[in-house]
Amino acid sequence: MSPSRRAFLKESAVAAAGLSLLPVSTSVAGTQGTAREAKARGLLFDASDLRRMRETVKLPRFAAYWKSLRDADLAADTAFLRDELRLNNHAQHMLRARLILERAAFVYALTEDSAQLALARQAIDRLLQYKRWDYFLEAGEHTIGLQRAPEATIAMVSALEFLGPALPADLQKEIEQQVADKGAPACYRTLYGMKYPERVRGWGFDPDDVYTYRFDLRRWPLILNSTNLKIIPVAGLMMAGCRLYGRHPQAERWIDMALQSARAFATMYGPDGSYDEGVGYWGYTSLHLALALEVLYRRTGADHRDLINFPGTARYALAMAMPIIGRPKECVNFGDAWTMGDTAVAAWTAGIRRDPLVQYVATNIGEVQSYYAVLWHDPTVKSKAPTAALHNVRLSNDVVTSRTGWTERSSVAALRSGGPANHEHADRNSVLFAAYGERLFHDPYKAAYSYTDPHWLLRLTSAHTAVLIDGKGHQYHDGHEGTNASWAEAHIESYEDRKGDLFATSDATEAYRLVLPGATRVLRSMLFVKPDILILLDRIRLSDYALPVQLRFQIDNSDGKGSVAADGTGFRITRPHAHLQASVYGNTAVVVRTGTLPLPAEHGVHPFAEVQSAHAMEHILLTVCTAQESGKPHGTLRVQQSASGFEIAGQHNARSLRMRISTEHDIPGILL
Known about the structure:
The longest helix has 27 residues, at 169-195. The strands form 5 sheets. The protein has an 8-stranded antiparallel beta sheet. It has a 5-stranded antiparallel beta sheet with strand order 4-5-6-7-8, with no helix packed on it. A 4-stranded antiparallel beta sheet has the order 9-14-19-18, with no helix packed on it. Helix content is 35%, strand content 23%. It is α+β, with helices and mostly antiparallel strands. The chain has a domain at 397-671: Beta-galactosidase, Chain A, domain 5 (Distorted Sandwich), CATH 2.70.98. The chain has 18 helices and 24 strands.
């Protein structure tokens, strides 16, 4: 053990023991004061904010979320905490106890309902009984806090803020003691290990915990350093440090480590605010980053609330939204981010920046998913809807989205290019398409997090609207270290906004070459002729020997209402509110068939259409798609093929089309 680590562990133990000797104050400034004064200077809110929050939960945007909190089954929660919770189950039981605590404490703050207070007290008691606050260890001995310890720390500190003088002084003292013993050191040790991975003595699972899955954690200090699992301990450590600031000898050290780590993590966001792990993880991550910076500002006055491009990151969420009928949380779900993330960070940003577009994101995109949206909502900030200037977006991480708007019936097309990231799938050059309130080209939800589960398959190229070469997808890892990044790269080679229509080409050659060295060109071009014509041009070139190529098109059957049928050299996708007609043309013989992913029924039925191009050294495949609402016919688009490309002419709905696509060069030339 290095001297610095030995000193840290010794000082942490001494400081934790010494906390009980320090005067306990309910004042956030660390000086003696009344409970009312403490409430007025809270880490999360001021007493004067309670009236605003009580009015906020009455607004239509927040009403459903608030109802879900008020309608929670307190009897079931009580029974769980009393009879079912096991102290060696962190992944599920501790998580549920923490969620119960945060919900009950927040509801009590707004209602002063004694039943909520009693439930919160019970949840606190159970969390205090855990020997450790996380199920990961360093050197088989010291707790590291990746999720449960920072989450418990945040929940406990938040409960102190929300419940205030309703908690007895001795209980407040015990909570703070355990935050200092079980929460902050675990979070600090995690961030220290990420900062100095060569000093880590080995991360692993707590053998006493019942967690089912086991991964190889030896490289996790390196792997997780660039994932959302870094920013959660940042927030937990910052909450602990700010709560105990001025009253605990380690508090400033905790704050310093949290801020250093937040600064290092900020580079995970693109200059435009994009986030590689996907928009679902964006919400969770960005919320905790904002939380850390906000409590630091409220406690110390140090203002780092421009650490990343927060207005830009709200616009990233806007670009990734893809609501459909009855499912407002739908998103461009490349990777594991299968629904829109928590947009509470947009409420925080709008309040600070007085940004009308960010306020639109906060009040219109996705659904309210956490009390932070209520905590941070500022009704005095005006909202302004986005204009057509944001309909076509190429993000700094090379994801492309194109849309007609943000309603549930708007059309959205998205092309997945770019590099690897945690929580990614083997999905380079894959496409999503929604129109008339339905997902028509789909990316299946809820892929397994463990490679031992059969639905790990949902992570692979074969489960995406993407290209297979001789049945093989591009490179992806084997999962032994978790859901970390692969080596697969793709790049946008061409991007054009053509008077609202969108043309983009992505090159995924390097990703496929890692599996098939003879793949010398794997290009996909996407042309979105708005509002409902989508054209894909795939070009695959091989150097060693001729192989067949398959194009997969995944169907949304998550509700059991999606189907697909082959139709000559095309296929038809049917959903309740919309259908899609596709025709395929190629330089080789083309066969279209349908199938389902080979998974047990408990993991869903996932139908797809597959286009196969016969053995060849070069494949040029054109897929022409029209979307239509149910009950209405498709138009007619005629395609003429020549040695130099394709000509498309005809009409679909209100759009007349006359187009030439030249294939004389790898990047096709488009003449409209």
